[in-house]
Structures are given as structure tokens and as C-alpha cells.
Amino acid sequence: MNPDPAFVNQSKQFWAYVRTISQHVGYTVRKSRTTVLPNAGHIKVPSPEQIRDGLEDLGLNPMYVADASGHPTPLGATLAAYFQYRADVLNTFVEPRLMLVEQAKNLFLELQDKLSPRVAIPMNTQKGEKRTPKYLTAIVNMLVEANIGGMPCDYDPHELTTVTRNGAPMRTLSRRVDGAFPQIVNPIAIWEIKEYYYTTTFGSRVADGVYETLVDGMELEELRSAEGVHVLHYLIVDDHFTWWECGRSYLCRIIDMLHMGYVDAVLFGREVEEALPGIVRQWVRIAEP
118 with 221, same domain? Predict the structure, then answer.
């Protein structure tokens, strides 16, 4: 999915409000042991009263988001619209596209049969019955290969992303990424893949994956701002249990990160089949002389 244009040019202060309010009032409608709550487990849309009360609880001035009679300021109205948008897109678009491991396996086998890929199929690091292809990574690699028209691509970079000028390194990112087109030096596009099909809890390793992407995005934002170079940056994630059952708050953070401009697009689960071919063809058009 691409960011909604209504929210892409907001100030850093706007996102400070989003984060402050979200962490204090909660990202999801919590389930109750004693009461059946409507939309329990869904992404929360904080009410104007919850926003005001949350800011007051934190010792912050609520008058910036609503006047004394409760009418929202322009900032308050935009915050309310964003919280509603974030909940709607996660509840109705993202959640249905996140796959279980068997669904990912079936999509992998279907594309493998259809595309007859020449690119190597990566394997995960699990043992025993869980030792299988890295389904999401393999799906991404096959779709990229099928749509680059024979152009080069680095499907498994072992070097840091570097942008050069006049034969000298201008910026080098802190972390290695999972793919680069057409190469890891002066790439048109880079991408990161977070597939967690065999996890049983939302652990620190998964959370760290979100923050790693944020670090990369902040470095790329500085590159755009200071040098005018835009390297396209994509995040691709999957596993319904990990991200939806355990990590919905981190999905909210990913949607925030998308609209803050730290990634150009996020692909959720089976959305790779829907959207990635068109994205790759866009890269090819940029690369063509």
C-alpha cells in the first residue's frame, strides 16, 4: 500500500501527537474477560474525550487539539481523521491480506509453477519440519525476476547500501537490506522483508525489525534532504499470527512510518502478488536510458 496523500506532509509535531496519544490511550480495543466489547481486538480510534484526557494525564495542554467547549482545532481534526484512517486501513485492508504459513506456502508453490524461476530459492534457518523455503522472500524474488526484463538485481546483498558521487561514497547506510535493484551501490530501490511464519510470540526480535526499518528510512530521508537523492525504500511483511494476533500496535507504527516518509510503500502478505509487479516495472522505467 502507498501512503494516503492527505497525511504525507504533516509536521514532525503532528507525528509526536500521534505517538504520544497512541501509546497512552492504546493502539487496540482491548478484550475484556467479563464484558463483550464491540470491535474487541480491532485497531482503536481514540475519541476526542480520550485524546483530551490522555494529554491532560500526561501534563500536556489539550487546548492545541480542542477548545474549551470540546470543538477540535485544525490539528485536532486532522489527528481524528488520521486515527480513523489508520484503523480502517488496518482492519479492512491489511488484516485480510496477512497470510498463515500454509497460505504462504500455497502462493509460493503456485508462483513457482507459473513463473519457473531461475533465481535461487532461499531457505529459512529453522530445523526439522520447519526447515522450509523462506516463502515470502522467495515470492518477492520470483516476482522481481519475472518483471525486470532481464536487468540485473541483487537478491541477497552482502554489502551495505552506498550512494556515490563522482566515484566517491557520499552516504552508506548502517544496515544491510534484503534486496537492491539493480545493485547495492547507487540503487534505484532497496527493500526489507519481515516474515515470521514460525514465531509463537511477538518478541523483541520482531519489534527490532520495525525499528531497523525506521533507522534506514531516517538515513534515506537525510540523503533526500541534504543531497537530493531519492532511493526508493520498501518494507514487505507477513504472518497473520505474528503481526495481527500479537503485533497490531507495531502495524500501527508501520502505517505511521509510511506516512512520515520513511518508506515509499509497505506490502502486506499476499499484497506482494497484487502490487509488486507494477512497482518493479516502475523501477525498470527509471533505469532505462
Answer: yes
Distance CA 197, CA 246 (A): 13
Taking only Cα atoms into account, the Rg of the chain, rounded to an integer number of angstroms, comes to 21
- For the CA atoms of 72, 19, 37, 89, the dihedral, rounded to the nearest 10 degrees, stands at 90
> For residue range 246-260, what is the model confidence (pLDDT) as tens digits?
999 999 999 999 999
On average, the pLDDT of the chain sits at 93
Is the pLDDT score of 39 beyond 60? no
Strands 189-195 and 179-181, sheet pairing: antiparallel
Q: pLDDT value at position 230?
A: 97
Give the structural domain span for 60.
5-97
- Looking at residue 243, its amino acid is W
Would you list the DSSP string of 135-162?
HHHHHHHHHHHHHSTT---BSS--S--E
Is residue 156 predicted with pLDDT exceeding 70?
A: yes
Domain count, the chain: 2
In this structure, the dihedral spanned by the alpha carbons of residues 33, 197, 240 and 261, taken in order and rounded to 10 degrees, is: 120
- The pLDDT value recorded for residue 34 is 46
**Residue 193 pLDDT exceeds 90:** yes
Of the residues 46, 65, 97, the one at which a domain ends: 97
With contact defined as beta carbons under 8 Å apart, do 154 and 131 qualify? no
